[in-house]
Specification:
It contains 13 helices and 13 strands. It has 2 domains: about 120 residues, Alpha-Beta Complex (Aspartate Aminotransferase, domain 1), CATH 3.90.1150.10; about 230 residues, Type I PLP-dependent aspartate aminotransferase-like (Major domain) (Aspartate Aminotransferase, domain 2, 3-Layer(aba) Sandwich), CATH 3.40.640.10. The model has no long low-confidence stretch (mean pLDDT about 95).
């Protein structure tokens, strides 16, 4: 069959939304769809500490030679020791973002046991399911909001039907798209349940430091590492370092023995070699430079705290408006991170874009960090107007 047998696929909704936003020339437009942090001017800035690290690389970097398939070991070790702070030995590798880490993990999990299932609570990040499907890993979806209220602990109840060797996808913090994470008791329950049933944890860490802080955001992960024998961790530096287009990620694996961990790692490296050969260097080198320098590390923490504070302020400001156009904004006060799910009708979402240049996912997911200067008042006013227009 020739290539003429292919048909045009529909665009991925969030990417299509971003293109529509890019074509909108109205000056007060806002993009609340794509998951990037923005400042008061509506710009995704380059962090000052990143600029400093890049300047140092420019001065001192001696080569642009290839990395190995496992990437920069200094970056991998620095992320592990400075950010994850694992409570047990693990082996890691650099990846093309956390998406690349999840993809490699899914491939090796399916390779080791094609019959295993991966348990995924919904709603989740829209690219989770396609990544697992591409690896031919059978997904077991669990509706975590059958009554319209998202409760992450419902996934734990569903694991009664899981069998040893199954995998559970877990977001460590700042859940995308709801912003609702397990509470401490829920993390204990999850870790104990998974350990008792012999399940594997695949932990997605995409927003570390943008919830309750660097240490608090990983309390759930540390409980999993304490109780669950086999844990894989997909870590992203795109958001907390503002390195979105650099695609900086890492994948770590911890098992019951060094020999078993080395075996899994060898398969991951082989999978990376056949996919993209070697990861890009620049973004990882920037992160390594920051993490290996005490002054830069403190500067990065201050900038990250400022980003986190802005997100928290926006959450509280939105929640303070109560119910607007039938949409309850009060629940935003209890969430974490950049995202929240609002009970907004798709017709109202369409009206927000068409009449008010405010773009968001038709599912009701909102990227709070996309609100520019005066954005809270503008969004609330537009939401009330769009709701009235649709109801009329």
């Amino acid at each position: 069959m020739s290539l003429s047998g292919l048909t045009i696929l529909p665009p991925e909704p969030l990417l299509a939304l971003n293109r529509s936003f890019g074509q909108d020339v109205r000056p007060r437009r806002m993009n609340l769809g794509i998951g990037m942090y923005c400042n008061e001017q509506g710009i995704t800035p380059v962090m000052s500490v990143v600029k400093t690290a890049e300047s140092l690389l420019h001065q001192h970097q001696a080569t642009k030679a290839y990395l190995a398939p496992e990437g920069d070991p200094g970056f991998v070790d620095s992320v592990a020791s400075c950010l994850i702070a694992p409570t047990r030995p693990m082996q890691g590798m650099q990846t093309v973002g956390a998406s690349g880490a999840l993809s490699l993990a899914a491939e090796v999990l399916a390779r080791s046991d094609p019959s295993r299932k991966i348990w995924l609570g919904l709603p989740s990040w829209p690219n989770h399911a396609p990544i697992f499907a591409a690896a031919n890993l059978d997904a077991q979806f669990v509706d975590l909001q059958p009554d319209g209220v998202f409760l992450p602990e419902r996934l734990i109840d569903a694991l009664d039907d899981a069998v040893p060797g199954d995998v559970v996808l877990i977001q460590a913090c700042c859940h995308n798209p709801t912003g609702i994470d397990l509470d401490p008791a829920g993390w204990d329950w999850l870790a104990e349940t998974m350990a008792a049933k012999g399940l594997i944890a695949l932990v997605d860490i995409a927003y570390h430091g943008l919830g309750d802080g660097l240490s608090a955001d990983l309390q759930g992960l540390h409980k999993l590492l304490q109780h669950v024998p086999e844990v894989m961790i997909a870590y992203s530096c795109d958001k907390n370092f503002g390195l979105y287009r650099e695609r900086v990620g890492a994948l770590y694996v911890a098992t019951e023995s060094e020999r078993q961990t080395d075996a899994v790692w060898s398969h991951l490296v082989t999978a990376a070699r056949s996919r993209y050969s070697m990861p890009p260097d620049h973004g990882a080198a920037v992160v390594r430079t920051i993490l290996e320098d005490d002054a830069l590390f403190l500067q990065w923490q201050r900038e990250l705290d400022a980003m986190n504070g802005r997100i928290g302020d926006l959450r509280r400001a939105l929640a303070g408006h109560g119910v607007v156009g039938g949409v309850d904004l009060r629940r935003l006060a209890t969430g974490r991170g950049m995202f929240a799910m609002l009970d907004i009708a798709p017709a109202v979402v369409d009206r927000l874009a068409f009449d008010h240049a405010i773009y968001m996912a038709r599912s009701g997911r909102i990227n709070i960090a996309g609100l520019a200067q005066g954005g809270v008042e503008a969004f609330v006013s537009a939401l009330a107007a769009a709701s009235r227009e649709v109801a009329a």
